[in-house]
Fold this sequence. Notes:
The two termini are about 40 Å apart. About 40% of the residues are buried. The protein is globular, with a radius of gyration of 24 Å. The chain has a domain at about 360-408. By secondary structure, the protein is mainly alpha-helical. The chain contains 24 helices and no strands.
Amino acid sequence: MGFLKFFAGKTPEQIEKKADSLFNEQEYGMAKMEYENALAKLEKQSDPNPELVNRISEKLIQCKELLAVRHLQNAKELVASNCLQDAKDLLKLALELTADEKLSVEIQEVQKQFMGSRSSNGHEKEDRIENNHIGEDNIEEDMPWEEEEYLTALLGSLPQSEQEAYLEYGKEFKIGFVALNQGDFSTAVQNLSIALKAHSSAKSYIPLELATAYVNQGQYSEAESLLAGFLKDFPESIRACQLMSEILWEKKKFKDAEVFLKACPKEIVGSIPIQLLLGETYFLSGDLEKASTFYQDVLQKNEWDNHIAQSLAKTYEALGRNEEARHVYGQIIGACQGCGRKIDSHVKQRYAETSFKAGDFSTKTLELFFNLTQEDPENRSHYYHKISRIYSLQGNEKEAERFLSLAR
């Protein structure tokens, strides 16, 4: 799942959707990479949508903060286990990720404890060799220090069981895995293929990473074949289900994608990530009514979930049902306020836009756009246009003209 990875034909919005699903699954490291993928793809566009850039950037920041917290927690456990060098690496990464002053102070406090532990035994290098789980095939022997640190960062985003497995796959796998995440897909395919042959007799996560590399090169049939075998060994892998769905979407095999997702193991078939994939299958197939009905059923039968709700609201907008979309966005805002979570600026923006489209030109809608000019200054001109239009519809031509001039 690379920083510079682009699925052939995938839009930044589709990559963002994948990142949202990973975020919902608490796979913050993978979600971070996908948000970075989306932003990198936007940078390739001649005239990127500033609203989309801002929205994804905010999500990326949130991912980084949560990942920093996770790194800090893991580092504390490593310090307690006297795995000092590994703890040092995670603390450094956590400090680089966070922009929160309070969290930065906490990380630095743990770093001070780490330095105290280090001084007390004076054997940092020996501790690392004794406590790492790489065995004879040490990372330091495989690649330069910079790539070693990069690999550590990548593995830090994976569940512990996967981290341990990945470190046992050897030099070629590590080189291929790093290449995949750096966007060098030909090198990734070459080295991951070698690693797969070396571990062909045992279950491994190598096919999943090699399939990802194949997808990025547009080799969908090869990727699909690998994933079919991988899912026999790891049928509950959400990442594999997501990648398989994307392959089927690219091939326009939406019915196959629906059948595949409905046949997922009972442990995951009802999970939010799988439900999001199934709903997106209906949406991408063009069956918007089926998508909206599906999302409504999920919300009625389960606890409220903002990701499902956003997908429903997006579908309502695509259907031109702006009043219903507005209502759902309002529910999302209310849910965030109720639990104290920060409200996604994209949700605020869509709530304001759907209010406008639904014919609500009240002072409340006007205030929404005023707030957005402060929260989203890069799109201020667009919001001034809306403010001008609302004032005009309210009969206040003086203010309408003033904000129209500001918009220009």
